[in-house]
Amino acid sequence: MISADDMSILSLVANASLVVKFVMGLLLAVSGISWYWIFRKGFALRSARNATSSFEHQFWTGGDLTALYRAASADRDSAGPLARIFEAGYREFAKLRGQAGLEASDIIDGSRRAMKATLQRELDDLEAHLAFLASVGSVSPYVGLFGTVWGIMNAFRGLSNVGAATLAQVAPGIAEALVATAIGLFAAIPAVVAYNRYAHDVDRLAIRFESFTEEFSNILQRQIR
Q1: Which of 19, 109, 132, 136: CA 20 to 30 A from 63?
Q2: pTM over the 0.85 mark
Q3: CB–CB of 144/183 below 8 Å?
Q4: Are 31 and 183 in contact (CB under 8 A)?
Q5: Tell me: the pLDDT tens digits for 159-211?
Q6: Which sequence spans correspond to the domains of the chain?
């Protein structure tokens, strides 16, 4: 007869084979790291959205461009990604505009290139560690499955020395093996959900950045005329 204590999760983990224990430990460690990046990336994206909305409001309410540029330059770290894109474009615009012999198109192209380069750096920063979450979501179930297969192999190998197999003999081995699959799913599901959500948020911010870049380029072009 199989007792409840023998089939508890902690008992199954404690009595698991060394390989299965290693798989469980690895999955728990990966899950802990993924949760760290889930929370950290969530806070970072929320901060980027709020800073972007705040700067858009200041920009489109008719604020002075020079004043906005000085404010963005004074504290680039907390200004937000869109403010840094604006700051890079306006700085290049002011520098090129002061040089003699440049066509208006050259000045606008230089400003646009500066904004595009900063935009790409901002997106790279926002997308950092999303690949890790995607990898955890795709690989963890297979790692857990490996632990399950190994545990089931050990359970059936142990039956080879027994004349008559009973449920009491095979159930603990199979149950401890299935715990590895459960831990793999526990690591994978939050990582997949977070990756899909954050990738969508980054794409939406990218659209806002690119739209601002084009609109601001048009504003700068009108200032040259």
Answers
A1: 109
A2: no
A3: yes
A4: yes
A5: 666 555 555 556 666 777 788 888 899 999 999 999 999 999 999 999 999 99
A6: 9-224
